[in-house]
Amino acid sequence: LPEFLDPVLAYLSENLPPPAYSLLISFLSHGLALASALLTLAHSLLFDSSNWNAQTLLPPLIAFLTAYLAILSLYRTTAWIIRTSFWFIKWGSLLAAIAAGAGWMLADGGNALGGRGAANTIAGVVLDMMNGETGKQSRGSRQRKRPKAWDSFEAHRDWQFNEKQAEKDSKNDAQVLMDNILSATGSAITGSNWWGFLSG
C-alpha cells in the first residue's frame, strides 16, 4: 500500500477489531492493484497504440483480471458467510422454539397437587368449546372444587378420594367402550365369509 495511507491505516488498526482490519487491508490492496492495472492497461491501449504487442498488453491485463477475481472472491465469500450465518440463526431459533414448545406441552403433565397440566387444560378448553354449556354443566357437576390450603386435612383427603374415584370411573367408562368396540369388530370378522374361508 502507498505510504500516504499509513496514518489512516494506523488509526484504523487501533480502532478496528483485527478481523475487520485484515479484511479492509486485503480489500484496499486488491482494489489498488485493480486500479493500477486498469490505468496501466488504459495508458498502453490509448497512448501507446504503436507499441501494441503481447509483452506490453498481457502483464497489466493479467494483473487486472487477478485483482478483479480476488475482489470478487472476497465479496462472494463474505456474502456467503453472512447469509449462512443468518440462515443458521433463523432456522436454529425456529427449531429451538418448536422443541421448547413441544417439550413444555409434553412434560407439563398432571402432578400430585391436583394440577392437570398444560396439554390437559388446553384439551379441556377445546372440548368445552365443542360441547357448549351442557358439557360445562355436566363436567362441573362431577368435579368438586379443590379445598383451600387452610381447610382441614379431612377436606383435602375427601377431595383427593373423590378425584381418584372420578378418574377410575372415567377409565372404567373408556374400558367398557373399548370392550364394546372390540367385541363388535370380532363378531363382524367371525361372521363374514372370508373368515370361514381362511380358517377352513
TrEMBL record:
<protein>
    <submittedName>
        <fullName>Uncharacterized protein</fullName>
    </submittedName>
</protein>
<feature type="transmembrane region" description="Helical">
    <location>
        <begin position="87"/>
        <end position="107"/>
    </location>
</feature>
<feature type="transmembrane region" description="Helical">
    <location>
        <begin position="20"/>
        <end position="45"/>
    </location>
</feature>
<feature type="transmembrane region" description="Helical">
    <location>
        <begin position="57"/>
        <end position="75"/>
    </location>
</feature>
<keyword id="KW-1133">Transmembrane helix</keyword>
<keyword id="KW-0472">Membrane</keyword>
<keyword id="KW-0812">Transmembrane</keyword>
